[in-house]
Amino acid sequence: MIRFLIPIAASLLAVSTAQADWALNMPVGVTDLSAETYDLHMMVLGVCTLAGAATFAVMIYSLVNFRKSQGAEPATWSHDTKAEIIWTIIPTLIMIALVIPAAQTLVKIEDTRNTEMTIMITGYQWKWHYEYIGANYSFYSSLAQSSNEARRLGADIDVYAVENYLLDVDRHLVVPADTKIRYLITSNDVLHAWWVPAIAIKKDAIPGYVNEGWFKVNEPGIYRGQCAELCGKDHGFMPIVLEVLPKEDFVAWISARRDGKAVATSGPTATKTAG
Q: Which alpha helices (H) appear in 111-246, and where do they start and end?
């Protein structure tokens, strides 16, 4: 018996070790809102799991103990008012308990008051345009040349050797850490979506309409995402790279670009990718 348990235990240990590279759950993220969203997700998942387990337990018990071969006879009554009241009140109370924290989080997500800077994001087929409102600086961000060359039909390039394949761009969106940033988002052609899992944002870019939201990243680093709407034949080649710098480094970065100078930024310490 023991010799069969050892490989099973080893397999479970290997699975737990690999979870950092292969995770099915949503990421905790690097903002207060992303952590709150994760906690809300786990709470709802737990409630749904318990409800499902209880439901299937009752079903299995009923199927096993009240089957015809055991001599069970069909009931002659049509309903039970007391039971109906119980199974109506309990789910209602559970839903109310879930709605309250969810509504509180939704209110926070939409609260753009007291932001410290604003960025205009515009989706194009197939790139992003970023404008720092009030800073007199804007640019387009497209798929990195290394990924663009490797993804072409007939290209004799090993895509596994390309760093951050299809998740890298030629110009990063750079923002300061620990700063409440308001973003406005629209599209110049078709429907796009700006999605960065590490900051728990997936906001639609709709032609002729301006959406808004905000984020405040706690940790300097590089966080990757993608367009999350099917926007055309090159939809899969429209990544997002958000580079978060310490405040003093960001001030130097944006000042240099407003003055038309190019300076190197300090290297971020963390990298998050979509998926």
A: 145-150
CATH number of 117-272: 2.60.40.420
What are the contacts of 157-161 at 24+ separation with CB within 8 A?
none
Among candidates 163, 180, 183, 190, which has minimal Cα distance to 271?
Answer: 163
Q: Which residues contact 218 (CB under 8 A, 6 or more apart)?
A: 30, 31, 32, 177, 178
Q: How far is CA 91 from CA 55, 88, 97, 124, 140, in A?
A: 12, 6, 10, 45, 49
Kindly report whether the peptide bond that precedes residue 87 is cis, defined as omega within 30 degrees of 0.
no
Sequence spans of domains, the chain: 21-65+79-110, 117-272
Q: Which of 90-99, 129-138, 148-157, 214-223 shows the lowest mean pLDDT across its residues? A: 148-157
Whole-angstrom Cα distance, residue 245 to residue 262?
Answer: 16
Q: Which of 129, 124, 133, 135 is nearest to 229 (CA)?
A: 124
What is the β-pairing status of strands 117-124 and 127-132? antiparallel
Say whether 244 sits in a helix, a strand or coil. strand
In whole angstroms, give the CA distance from residue 107 to residue 32: 14
User: Token pair of 255, please?
Assistant: 């000042």
pLDDT for the residue numbered 274: 45
| Interval 28-78: pLDDT, tens | 889 999 999 999 999 999 999 999 999 999 999 988 888 878 777 877 777
Dihedral of the alpha carbons of 194, 196, 197, 198, in degrees to the nearest 10: -150
